[in-house]
Design a protein that fits this description.
InterPro entries: ATPase_NBD, Carbam_trans_C, Carbam_trans_C_sf, Carbtransf_dom, NodU/CmcH_Carbamoyltrnsfr
Oligomer: single chain
Shape: globular
Structural class: alpha/beta
Pfam family, one: Carbam_trans_N
Largest sheet: 8 strands, mixed
Strand order of the largest sheet: 13-20-19-14-15-18-16-17
Protein name: Carbamoyltransferase C-terminal domain-containing protein
Organism: Dactylosporangium salmoneum
Radius of gyration: 23 Å
Domain Carbamoyltransferase C-terminal: 368-536
Number of helices: 15
Length: 539
Amino acid sequence: MADPVAVGLNLGHDGGCAVIRGDAIVAIAEERLNRKRYSDGWHASLAYCLDSADLDLANVDIFVFSCVGPRLPAGFTGGLDRYGVKPSRIVSVDHHLSHAYSAFCLSGFDDALVMIADGSGNDHQTESYFVAGPAVLTRVGGNRADRPRAGGVGAVYEAVTNWLGFDGQESGKTMALASFGDASTIGASLFGMHGLEVEGRLTRTHDRGLLDFARASGLDLGDPGDWHGPRGRDLAAWVQHETEEALVELVSTLMWTYQQRRVCFAGGVAMNCVANEVIRQRTGAQLFVPPAASDRGQALGNALFGMHQLTGRVPKMPRVGRDSFGRTYTSEEIHLALRRHPRAGRAHRYPMPAFTYRWESDPSTVAADMISEGRIIGWFEGGSELGARALGSRSILADPRRVDVRDQLNSRIKHREWFRPFAPAVTAADAKVWFELEGESPYMLFAPKVRDSVRDQLAAVTHVDGSARVQTVDPDVHPAFHRLISRFGEVTGVPVVLNTSFNDTEPIVESPADALATFCHTDLDALVIGNYVVEKTGA
């Protein structure tokens, strides 16, 4: 009997597709294919996933859609019926329930609490709570139905982010800036908590809601868009502190109410690695946050929901340490891109400087040695990550010891704001030597402190508050990346590398052609792609 096949499709921002066939998963965000950040849509990603899984539409048993805002109408088909898909094979799922599946099913837990917090789900939902087990995920609470969306944790954080001059999808910038400010200079409370119900003080969304609150409370917010000034930094610190307090209270209340330490957390708010670390430290929760906790994980959650409908069992598909749900490219496909062959894709969308390439039998060692010499490299290996963090499949790597490397990355390559930190990737066995870390952190979704005794050796990856968004690397999960870090440790005595996403202003690279285009368009010193090492030859 053939394995059941479920396809998940996300209609909202961060659109994409996931295909589950038996125990195998292929998933990708639409932005990785159309090269437009936070893109909606699913057509290109559906074709990619079906092709990668060697399937066509007729092989799929169930298609599951989700969206943000008003729920999809009964009988919604997304247009798939035009291609011969029977409407009986097409269903939709609640946005927050999809998040819950993406968190619980990947956690490996037999049972757990699941907390969802984001800017918006369906019908003004911003917080939802579930009790999850092998047979069912049961919603047990959330924000009250008549409370405005503006009062949710994610919506309030988004409002401050907008006031600072950032896009609503750029809350990570607010989180980074917060370490430079002082929350106590503002003092006002952003949230009222009533058990498991969050009552945010804002009544309108975005920066206009924050302005209303400030006028009513007599607060000085400074000038809108002025994240450069001290008031902007204090605002960031304020919303970060208030968010942490609200989340700690919610998790503590959930754990006490249901006498459960295992907690899964998803939704856009769960991407706040600083808050996640505070939750873990202050509540004692055994906390799992999936790598694609934001809406990038909706398609995967939809497919997992679909598998439950097909099999009658909640899928248990732990992928601890793994987020490489994209397809793997062959050496032949990489070589086509290096030869600039038209079949390789869009490598020519930027001017192409002269470069050379060579085959290496041990690219991990070559890459580590280049990094130890102060070079900044692109690293392309295996299938691409689904989530927002590069975890050693589509990464830019550098020496974590050198502050000048951090500055070069911001100015020459990533073109980011100066206050945003870079993350360290460390061998799992050495993590506790360098960081105040309990357990693992394979997805860069926790921010423990760097140990005082080694901060000078990790100057490029230690944030101003002494924290670091750590990735622990297991040799069984990422063997080539682990070999690279281990080799770097042998050469330098520091088994840690600086790891940031392989992109500039575009989404993270997906294909060999994307990697080559970004390498040529930026000031990267070298590109290690599969077994090939690429270097520019011109001035």
